[in-house]
Amino acid sequence: MVKMASTEEQDRKIVLEFCHLLEKSKQLFNGLRDLPQYGHRQWQAYFGRTFDVYTKLWKFQQQHRLVLDSKYEPEDQLEWSLVLEEIKGFIKAESAVAVLHADTNPIVLSHRLSPLTTPPCERTPHMTLSLQEILIVGSACEQAKFSELTMDMFRMLQTLEREPTDAMHPMIGHPMAHGGPHDASPAASRMPYGVPGSKGYVENGDRRTMRDNPHKYLLYKPSLSQLMVFLSSGFKELPPGGALLLYMSADGCFSTTKHPQDYGYELGGLATSVKRDAVDSGLSVRGKSSAGYKEPHCLYPGDLYPYTRRPLFIIIDSDNSFVFQHIPRYFGQPLVILMSPQDIPANYQDLQHHGSLFTLFLHSPMTAMCYICNVGDVPIHHWERCQSYVDRFVTEASRLVTRCRMDEIEQGIGYIDSSYVQFFGDDFLRTLILRFVFCDVALRLHRGFRGRHQRPRCEPPLPGPELLEHPSLAHIVLQLATALDVRGHFVEGPEGD
């Protein structure tokens, strides 16, 4: 009897401690909301304290799960049940292609950047910029999400993260692990760090530390004013030699102007949130037109003009993406815009709930290739073999980009805009550029993507015969299709070895 009472008392203390930690974590989290929403140096210390308490809370509930499960079912149990269902749906949608172990169990692959997966690059003195600030905006309706993180936001977030150094391990199917004429080794990949104004260099009072990953803002369906505030904050935080990346996944706002003259504001843009003012709009969202005023919660290309004062890399994933190709370079700074296809074949449109195809190509080209060929699962050994073709493509495309620049200087042919070259020295931006090239080549060869609106665009344009239409790149994609046993999805041509 005494022993039972002692156990009950111990369980009661565990529950009380858990409630204390839970209440403390809530207070700290709510306190974060009172801090300025921009300027990460202002709230980094507070965020650290909150993160520590949440970590302690998580460990505590893991250690005492049996006791806590048996004793303040929470008051918000229904809300947690809904969150759990949302997580299950998100995980199911995220695994667009299942990579199977020998025992047919699915394998979770990392798509973060590592020294073994960093695309090779023959560096030149013109490659001067590093990615420092990132805005990831998710405003697409009817897309799988968890809390305030859409599938597109999640994939782009993973793409723009480095594999933690303590978790570094050989990645499957990457010939870069065997050496070669590139600077993707761990030592070489970290050489620029620690230099003022270079990637990873952070000053915090008298302390100087290295940051592997650029700073990021994640915005879910923000109002236009919120978007501009965070964009301005990222712009303000840029160090010398730093670049700002804006990624937007959003539905299009379509103009009804018959004869547009101002490309900055009369071609439409992107819907940033579902909020609507009590005034008529001069735009149509998803084909619903009205007359009168311009949409207040729409990001127009002209809204980005002031931010071209600094190096700016833009990725637009939308059914109205092409309107952003007219942004001028008033200030002569590097500017690159990658734009998704504005339309996809009807048989793929129902799958948009699982995330955009364009973002999937930027996140994992191999997964996207399987996706457009209706390959639902791949054994791990076969995935490794096919992934080697993607790596060969990236290596060859990187060589062609550098070659185009050298040819331009020496002979005036194969022109590639200097913006690409300046961004190409950054691991993340180089990865995005080369995966964009893979997406363009793969969709151009695929029988299902025939219209020009069903392929991506970029500004400035990348050279055709010297890069996007180069026979060696097409050859590798067709070899990959043959290895996947989906050659029939692609145009006729030599299959190669």
Automatic annotation (TrEMBL):
| Source superkingdom | Eukaryota
Q: Name one GO molecular function term.
A: transcription corepressor activity
Q: Which InterPro entries match?
A: SCAI (IPR022709)
Protein name (record): Protein SCAI
Its BP terms in the Gene Ontology are: DNA-templated transcription
